[in-house]
Amino acid sequence: MSVTELEQRLAEFADRVASMPASAELAAAEELVRDALAELGRARKRRDGGPQREQKLLRQIFRTLPVPVIVMDPGGTVRRINNETTRLLGSPAGYLIGRGFPLLIESSRRAAFRGQLNAALRGEESITFETRLNHQGRTHTVRLVLSRLRMPGEPQEMVAAVALPTEVQLTEAQHPAEAPDEALFLAAARRHELLSRLTRLLLDEESLREPVALIRAARLLAAETADWVIADVLRDGVPHRAAVIAPSTEPVARLHRAVEALPPAEAPLVAHVLATQSGIIHEMLSDESLLGSDVLAQMRAGSLLSVPIRTDEEVSGVLTLVRLRDRPPFGLADLGLLEEIGGHLGLALRAQRTFQRSSNAADALRSGVLPRTLPDIPGFEFAAMYHPGSGLRAIGGEFYDVFPMKGGWGFVIGSAAGRGEEASSVTSLVRNGLRVMSAWERDPGAALRKVNDALLAQHTGLFVMAAAGFVRGRKVRLASAGHHPAALLQPDGGVRFTEGGGVPLGFEEGAEPAAEELTLAAGETLVLYSDGLVGSRSADGAGYGEDRLTEVLARCASQPPSAVVKAIEEDHRAFAGDRVIDEITVLTLRRAR
């Protein structure tokens, strides 16, 4: 804009001020504008600085005007302020520019300001009215003059606001000098406490096992910092509504269902957050279609913020919080907190997906190496127990099996020295290989030798500790490849152990399993168990061991295998509590007659 054009605009502005009802403030403002016009005239006559000098002069005049002047866009967002405005409101230009000017107006008068702003944009005349500004603990009663500015080269019109204070009062006593700092400290402490509570909630085991993390987080946020909380998650790249929490104090069931039914993919706010992958805050809503339809108007929404649910690698959803008109609006501190919460939620959802995949994989692996039911063998009773363990050892390579064979039946229990799918494939080889070999070999030791050779040929690098038995009549042929000795519980409560031992399968070619033969009397129970049982430790570091197992078995004299298994399980739970890290497998068989 040239100096001549500026002179014209200032002259028009001076005429508008002169046409207003007389007052000392307006007279002073008119005199200042006239002085500015005179200075511009002198500058135009000199013409020694060119356009750049003119622009500097204009900026200097604007900054030093001794009345507060604010330039805002048609939406009410502050674009420029002068020095007197920062002095009046007590905040620097960097804080005020970019914020909605209506946020500075007392909440009960914001709607009236909106009407006056629209009238100024539509008309040619300046609009003058009284209102109240609330900021930094002070209330300013001001006469506000709004004038439309047509600025060449600008894509939209602006509005100039001159604020002439008529009264200033404190909104609350501030006798201690440190009161504002104390308020800021308490607000920061509340945000920290909210983040800590959310973190504890997301780390809870149930939040990993079940899809409840988003709902729990939404409920906490609704109770602490928002009226409405809406969570949307991405599925195959499309956002789907996952949770909607409504105010508990209002009958909004119909509106609640309407918000749940709205497709988030059609909400401009959700699309914007997903596209930019960054949070956004609307301290004062001017567009009530941001969530689609007119739900924000029905909510009586005053402000909202929305942040991505994300990790460093991906965005997995959008979290949106809404406050009603009668509550203080969200601020930049709230946006920063919610962006951090969005990061926590993103990590929680990723951990939940990983946990679910691991759990599903564990179920698939176990179904491949554990029998669904034990066969009915005449003259014998069976019972078995398997616990998957926890943490990184939840998916492992323990297995057991009971199967028919020519002239009798067989059983096996074992554990691969590994975890996951590779261990599962190895244990499947051993389990199924032993079943196949039992059709050709009458001795379990010979069957284990051939399974050992087959395992070595696969070059897996894993080895398996196993114990197998072939039963014909009362005779039991036992073979052990590096496994714990089996326990034999006698009807009178006596307990003795077999020899066990031997070299694990897959360790070396030609290794011979340890072998022995037992004759089971009626009422005797053979108990086979994994290292996860006797090798487990309590919270104070004590080992379970075979001595404790002996004591438990001695109390189970003459009891059926199911009761023996239950007694072992309950005793181990009392010993280890929640520290079940390794898998635990127990297989019991009893000669009934």
Task: Please sum up the structure shown.
Keywords: Hydrolase. This is PAS domain-containing protein. The chain is an alpha+beta fold and 593 residues long.
Layout of strands and helices, then pairs:
Blueprint (H helix, E strand, L loop, with lengths): L2 H16 L5 H23 L3 H15 L4 E4 L5 E4 L1 H7 L3 H4 L13 H13 L4 E9 L2 E12 L8 E13 L8 H25 L1 H5 L3 H12 L3 E8 L2 E8 L7 H9 L6 H9 L3 E3 L12 H5 L1 E10 L4 E10 L7 H38 L10 E8 L10 E8 L2 E9 L3 H18 L6 H15 L5 E9 L2 E7 L5 E3 L5 E3 L16 E6 L5 E5 L1 H4 L10 H10 L6 H16 L7 E8 L2
Antiparallel strand pairs: 1-2, 1-5, 3-4, 4-5, 6-7, 6-10, 8-9, 9-10, 11-20, 12-13, 13-14, 14-15, 15-18, 16-17, 16-19, 19-20
Helix pairs in contact: 1-2, 7-9, 7-13, 13-14, 14-15
Q: How does this model look, in words?
A:
By secondary structure, this protein is of the alpha+beta class. The protein has helices at 3-18, 24-46, 50-64, 83-89, 93-96, 110-122, 179-203, 205-209, 213-224, 253-261, 268-276, 295-299, 332-369, 420-437, 444-458, 531-534, 545-554, 561-576, and strands at 69-72, 78-81, 127-135, 138-149, 158-170, 228-235, 238-245, 280-282, 301-310, 315-324, 380-387, 398-405, 408-416, 464-472, 475-481, 487-489, 495-497, 514-519, 525-529, 584-591. The longest helix is centred in the middle third of the chain and has 38 residues, at 332-369. The radius of gyration is 40 Å and the shape is rod-shaped. The termini are far apart. 34% of the residues are buried.
